[in-house]
Amino acid sequence: MYPRVERGNPVDLLRKLWLFTQVADAGSFTKASQQTGMTVAAVSKNVSQLEAALGAKLLNRTTRMVQLTAEGQQLLEQAQDAFSTLQTAMQEVDTSQRQPSGLVRISSVTAYGRLALIPVLPELLQRYPGLSLDLSLHDSGHGPSRRGEDIHITWGEEYHGDKVCKRLMVMPLVLVASPGYLERHGAPKRPEELHEHECIGATLPSGAYARCTLRARGNRRGKGYVFQPRGRVTLRDELETVVDAAVAGLGITVVTELNVQRHFAEGTLARVLPDYEIEGHSSKFGEIVLQYPQRREMSARVQAVVDFLLEKLVTVQFPQAD
């Protein structure tokens, strides 16, 4: 074992170690100086300094050649393995920059992830065979996967100023209830009647209760009715659970249309007040955005995935529910 080197610049020590391997491979200081472009004196001085730092003689010198000592032979073998490993690692990084490879972490709001993101991923993986993906689907900014995702598909209200943000779509809002609930309690005919019904509350990623404004279709400038679903049941974090609560007959609620298209088709949910348009409480409510790092901070693999998603997701069209 060599004594631990307590002092010295690590970069300088690595340079001395590399020069030692060049001398050992060449068999002389003269040949090593020619290969490295350094003077013989400079090469010799660096090797001598390495021997002093290690406290071991590495080379037996003669006027014509050098021979490795036992310590020198042991160090040479280990140093060559280490430099080979470093060279391989650098080549792999260089290759990944030219041909994207490695792991990319993506998080997405649940409904959009299921219906828009996942269907395009086979093409992504076919285009880039070296890529692998780690996906997290949830509807809350405080969801279970806060492990430093590379790319976020999230609500516009969760925009972080240090990221690039591209709008993918705005999801229309609808009022819904189960046919069973409407049969038991009747369907409201005007927004003002909503306060007489059991409503399912939902919280936004910010923690505030969701609210919206209802206006008669074709009368966007008219006075709207502000509706904040509140009742004996409030759901947090996952919009899918709000939909499940409505299907179970717990009351009326407002959700994005994308979350309930299947239930409309199956007849497990029905529209409430279909003659009214619903606006979110802010311009960002219901907006789906793609967030990713600034270009200068992105690896080649993240850049490749971002470019692919912008190409594919901005053109995704969803069928309109009847």
UniProtKB/TrEMBL annotation:
InterPro entries: LysR-type_TF_proteobact-type, LysR_HTH_N, LysR_subst-bd, WH-like_DNA-bd_sf, WH_DNA-bd_sf. Residues 12-69 form the HTH lysR-type domain. Belongs to the LysR transcriptional regulatory family. It holds the Pfam family HTH_1. The keyword DNA-binding applies. This is LysR family transcriptional regulator. PANTHER family: HTH-TYPE TRANSCRIPTIONAL ACTIVATOR TTDR-RELATED, HTH-TYPE TRANSCRIPTIONAL REGULATOR. It comes from Parahaliea maris. One of its GO terms (molecular function) is DNA binding. Keywords: DNA-binding, Transcription, Transcription regulation. SUPFAM superfamilies: Periplasmic binding protein-like II (SSF53850), Winged helix' DNA-binding domain (SSF46785).
